[in-house]
C-alpha cells in the first residue's frame, strides 16, 4: 500500500513495467502514462498531473540505470500526452531531469536521454529555446561522444533544434555566436564539424545579420581548414564561401569590421596549408572588390600577405595573388590615404626576399608609390637607396634590368652625390667589388646620368675624410688606398672601354690616385704633350704586379677599336713625337711579354715625322673627347706628386705598424718580466724575516708611476700602455701588501699608502674632469709620468750606498739593473714609433722630427 502511495498516481504495476530492463515493456508502460496524462488534461486534473511529473522526475534521477531509463521514457510520454499547448508550462520540469542524464556514464542512458529530449523538444518547441545554452552545450558534448548510437541520436536532436532556431523570429544570434566563439578552437574533428554546421545554419537564414560577428569567429574557421578530416575541411570551405558572400556591404545591414578581418587574413595568408593561403588571398581579393579604396588604410597588411607568394604555391593562388596585386595598384591614387610608414617597412623587408618575383613586385610598388605620392615617399629614400644598390648585385637579371629598378634609382639620383652608400657596399664586401664591381658601376651609369655618377664618385674617392670614414680603423692617418685604387681602376676601365660615357676634368682628377689610370686618360683625351711630364715620375713608382697589369690593359686598349684614333695620331705631325715617347715609356716598364711584343711592333710601324703633313690641324678629336682647356695640368701634376708621396708614406706606415706591434709585444713581455724582479726582493725579505736593509721606495715609486701612466694611456687610448701599467699596478700592490706585513715602520708606510691613494684620486679627477681640455690633460699627465719614470728608473740608486759599505750587491740585484736597461731601450723605440714626446723625453732622448711631418710628405 505504501509503494502505491509513493508512486501515486502511477500504479505499482505500471512502475514495475516502466523500470523493467526490457525496452518493449518500458515502451508499453510509457503508452499507459501518455494516455493517463491526456486524461488528466481532458478532466482538468492538474493536481494528479503535477504528482505524475514529480514521480517521473524522481525515477529519472534514481541510482538504478533501468529506473532512470524508465523515468526518461515516462517524461517523454507525458510531454506527448500533454501536447504543445499544455506541455509548455511544464517544459522546464520536463527538460531538467533529462539534461542531468547526459552526464551518465552508461551510454544506454545517454542514448535514451537523447530520445526523450528529442520527443520533449519536438512538443514544447519554442519553449525549449529558453534553455538554449544548456541544449547547445549538450549537443556540443554529444557530437564527440564515444558511442556511435549516442552520436546518431544527437544528430537527430541537433537537426530539430536547428529547425526551431531557424523558425523563431527574433532569435538571440549574439548569444549563439558567443557559444560558437568559446568552442571554435577545438581540435576535435567531431566538435569542429558541429561548430561549422551551426555557422552554416546561421548563414542560410536571411534574417540573421551575421556579418558583424565575423571578426570573432573568422580565425577559428580558418584553423578548421587544418583538420585531418576531409569532411570537416569541405564543410569549412563551404562555410567560408558563404561568409565571403555575406561580406558585401548592403543598406540596412550593420557594417563589418574589415580591419579586424584583414588582420586575421594576413596571418592565414602565411599559413603552411595551401588551401588556407589560397582562401585567405581569395577573401582579400573579394574584399577589395566589395570595398574599393576603403581598404587602402590596410594597404600594408595586404602587401604583407601577397608579396611573399607571387608566382609560388598553387596555380589558383598565383592567379589570385597577381590579380589582387594588380587591383591594389589600380586603387592607389594621388590623394589616397595610406599608412606610409607601415607600407615602407613592408617593402623594405621584401626587397631582399629570396624569391625573384617578390623582389620584382616590391620594386614595382616602390616605383608606383614614388610616382603618385612622391612627397610622402621622399623622406624614406635614404632607407631605400642602400638596399637598391645591393640589388645591383642581384643574381637575377630580370631584377637588374627591370624598368621599375631603373625608375626608382633614377628618382634617387640626387641622393647618389650626397651618399657613400655605393662605396660602403663595395668596402664591406671585397668579393663583390672584385667579381661584379665593373658590372655594377656600369649598370648604375646606364640607369643614371653617367656624368653625375663619375663626378660624385670622383669627389668621394678624392676626399680623405670620406675614404677614412669607410675604413674601420679611424685612427689610421691614411685612407684605405687599396680600396681607392680598386675603385679608380674600375671607373677608368669603364671609361676607357665604353664610348658612350663622357670624359672630363673630373675623370682626370679622379684618376690621380693611379699613375697608369691617369696616363690612360691622357691618351683618351689626346693630351700627349702633358703626358710627357708624367713619364719621368714613372721611374719613382714601385713596379708592382698590379701596376704591370694596368700597363698591359692599356696596351690592349690601344689595340682596341675604341682607341683607333690614338693609333691614327701616331701619323699626325703634332702628336707623333709625344705619343711615341709616351708609348716607349710604357714599353720600358713592361717585361718581355705578349704586351711588350704588341707595343713594340706598333712603334716599329710608325713612319718618320711629317709623312702626312696634310693631316696637320685637320684631324678631329673623337666626339666624346672635350676640350682640355678646363683641365689645370700643372696643378694636376703637383697633386699627383703629393698623392704619390702619400702612397709611399702609407707603405712606410704599414711597415711601421708591423714593427710597432712586434715591439709592443716584446716591450710588454720585458716590462712584466721586470715587475717579476720584485719577487727576488720579497724573497730576501722573507729569509730575513724583516724589511731591514730594504727600502720601500722602488715599490712605492713604481706603483705611483703605474697609476699615472695608466691614466696617460687611457687619455692616449694606447692599449699597450694601459695593459702594461695595469699589470704593473697589480704586482706593485701585492708587493706593498707583503712589505707592509713584514715592516716594523708601519706608520711611515701608512703615510705613503695614503699618498698613493690621493694620487690615484687626483689622476681619476684629471681624466674625467671638465676643467682641462684633452690636450691639457695629456700634457699634464705626460709631464708627471715623465718625472716619475725618471725617478722610478733611478730608484735603485738609493741602495748604492749600502753596496759600497757592504761591498755586496745583495740589496741591488743585478737582474733588476738588466731588466731596467732592456725595458728602457724597448720603450724608447716604442716612443719613437708611436711619436710620444713624453715617453722619449723621459729617456733623455729628443727626436725633433715627428711622424706627423713624415705623414704629410716633409721628408
UniProtKB/TrEMBL annotation:
Domain of life: Eukaryota
GO cellular component terms listed in the entry, alphabetical order: endosome membrane; Golgi membrane; PAS complex; plasma membrane
Membrane-protein topology: Multi-pass membrane protein
Residue intervals of the Vacuolar protein 14 C-terminal Fig4-binding domain: 431-499, 515-606
Signal peptide location: none
InterPro entries: ARM-like (IPR011989), ARM-type_fold (IPR016024), SWEET_rpt (IPR004316), Vac14 (IPR026825), VAC14_Fig4p-bd (IPR021841)
Protein name: Protein VAC14 homolog
Family per similarity comment: Belongs to the VAC14 family.
